[in-house]
Amino acid sequence: MKFLYILILIPTLTFAQLLTESDKQKHFSAGVVLGGIAYGIVLEETEDKTAAFVASIVTAFAAGYIKETYDANNGISFDNRDLLATTYGGLSMGITLDIFARNGKRKKRILKFKRKR
C-alpha cells in the first residue's frame, strides 16, 4: 500500500503550485474536512482501512463535483482545478489517517460517533 501512496503523491508534488491561490486553498480545506469525516465514519462502521481511504477520496471528489456543477448551472464556469484541489484535500486526509489508524478491532477509536451503551 505504501508504494501506492508514492504513486499517488507524484502528481500532488507536480501540481503543488495549484494550492497557491486562495480559492484553491478553500477547496483543499473543504476536501480535508469532508474526507476526514468520511474516513472516520467508514472506519467506524467497517473496520476496513482500505474502504475508509477510498471513501475519503470519493467523498471529497463528489463534494467538489457537486459544487462545480452548481456553479456551472448558475453561470460560473466549471473549474477542473477547483475539483482537483478538493479531491487532493480528501486524498491528503485519507493518506494521513490511513497511516495513523490502527489495524483491527480497537477499544479506542479515532472518531467516536456511537454512544456507549
Task: Note poorly predicted spans.
Answer: none
Spatial extent as radius of gyration: 15 Å
Largest sheet: none
Order of helices and strands: HHHH
- N/C terminus separation: 36 Å
**If helices are DSSP runs of H or I spanning 4 or more residues, what is the number of helices?**
4
What attributes characterize this protein structure?
117 residues, mainly alpha, globular
Q: How would you summarize this macromolecular structure in one to three sentences?
A:
This protein has 117 residues and is mainly α. It is 72% helix and 0% strand. 34% of the residues are buried.
Describe it.
This protein has 117 residues and is mostly helical. Helix content is 72%, strand content 0%. It contains four helices and no strands. The chain is globular, with a radius of gyration of 15 Å. It starts with a helix and ends in a 17-residue tail after the last helix.
Present the secondary structure layout:
Elements lengths: L1 H13 L7 H25 L2 H25 L6 H21 L17
